[in-house]
Amino acid sequence: MDKLNNNIDRTWIDAWNHPFIISGPCSAESERQILETAKRLNSSYVQGFRAGIWKPRTKPNNFEGVGKEGLEWLRKVKKSTGLMVATEIANAEHVKLAISFGIDILWIGARSTSSPFIIQEIADALEEENNKIILVKNPIHPDIELWIGALERLSGKGIRKLGVIHRGFYTYKNSRYRNQPNWNLLLNFRRLLPKIPILCDPSHICGNKEGILDIAKKAYHFQYEGLMIESHCDPNQAWSDAKQQITPENLFEMLKQLTYIEKCDQKSQKHLLDSFRILIDELDENLITLLAERMNISKKLGTLKKSSDIAILQPNRWKDIMKKSMNFGKKLGISEKFLEEFFQLLHQESVKIQNQIQ
Question: Which residue ranges traverse the bilayer (predicted)?
Answer without folding.
Answer: none
